Amino acid sequence: MNELLGYSADARLLIVNADDFGMYRAVNEAIIGSIEEGIAASCSLMTPCPAAGHAIDLLRDRPEIPFGIHLTLVCELPGHPWGPLAPRERVTSLLGSGGFHPSERIPELLAAARIEEVELEFRAQIAAVTDAGLTPVHLDWHCLADGGRADIFDLTVALADEHGLAVRAWLDPARSKLRARGRPVIDHDFLDSFGLDLDGKAEEYARLLRELPPGLSEWAVHPGLDGEEARAFDPGGWPVRHSDHAFLTSPRARDIVRREGITVIGYRTLREAWT
């Protein structure tokens, strides 16, 4: 993958992509800070979410920030539900009682979702970005590794090809599909920051940076600011987000990246190799 991206085989490459842009304002502000002041290099926008308009305005003012579309069929914050951008009556197989299914009902969603309705909703989410005059660089998914189903993954790759975008791939089957097509994918295990323990998290991040192997790795991080909005909106997630932001923007993180000779990249680099 290094050579496909234009780097030497022994280069230590790390995608640091901030997910959930648009979820709420404290997330938006932390993601911008993590890119402009920290080691994050790109982000993923959730167009159905309450602060998506705010996120789009931030991106419009910062055309240098590479961003993707965090394709969304799941709402893990039932107190603040979001739902489809496509007409509800045309995507009924994707819906629960108040909008998109919560994360604990993902199996039910994947069993019921009709692929033609998934396509309709994904196209609506992509159109929300392009109609705003913005140019994304990749597609990925919220709460669904590689889309959650093989046909959803294949649909997403087809949409990416149609729009000239890259696609994130986490797991071996999806990575193998893309490798066979000469597309860039990570060489090593994917890291989702919600999978790390809060206790000792900064130390774990520091260790992972120091021990980063040659080749292409990816961290999906979830920065957020602490505060009244975050605690009310996201009582289970804000500690993860706050601790991500604290490390990503810390002098320690920047110093380790510099001393270790790690090259942090965003998804614009993959898009250039994808197309």
TrEMBL record:
Its cofactor is Mg(2+). The keyword DNA-binding does not apply. One of its GO terms (molecular function) is metal ion binding. It comes from the Bacteria. It holds the Pfam family YdjC. Keywords: Carbohydrate metabolism, Hydrolase, Magnesium, Metal-binding. GO terms for biological process: carbohydrate metabolic process. InterPro entries: Glyco_hydro/deAcase_b/a-brl, YdjC-like. PANTHER family: CARBOHYDRATE DEACETYLASE, YDJC DEACETYLASE FAMILY MEMBER. This is ChbG/HpnK family deacetylase. It comes from Nonomuraea solani. The lineage of its organism: Bacteria, Bacillati, Actinomycetota, Actinomycetes, Streptosporangiales.
